[in-house]
Amino acid sequence: MKKLNRRDFLKVSGTSLVGMTLGGVALRANAQEQLSTDDPTAKALQYVHTSAVEGANCDNCMYIQGEAGAEWRPCAIFPGKNVNAKGWCSAWVKKPG
Ligand code: SF4
What we know:
- The protein has a single domain, classed as Irregular (High-Potential Iron-Sulfur Protein, Chain A), CATH 4.10.490.
- The chain contains one helix and three strands.
- The chain has one helix spanning 40-44; strands spanning 33-34, 72-75, 78-84.
- Iron/sulfur cluster binds at residues 47, 58, 61, 63-64, 75, 77, 83, 87-89, 91-92.
- The site of iron/sulfur cluster (SF4) has 13 residues, from loops.
């Protein structure tokens, strides 16, 4: 018995376009953990909840995010964590304007 059925399986590749649009989405200030001073990055950057540097704190740092006036706010340097508005770390750079 010869079976010469040749089947061409046309593979229709399901090119589902998965848009990788998540890259630039900034995390907002919902239910994020407060940054601990024991966090290795916090330690490395000498982060403190209360700034000892005259005129410099998280509230007037260019890396602060989230809602102005909130006590704990996200910071670009510590993704997924909130820093104290009165805090400070060595990455502090004065917010422009
Ligand atoms: Fe505060 Fe440092 Fe973040 Fe600036 S970079 S907001 S000083 S923790």
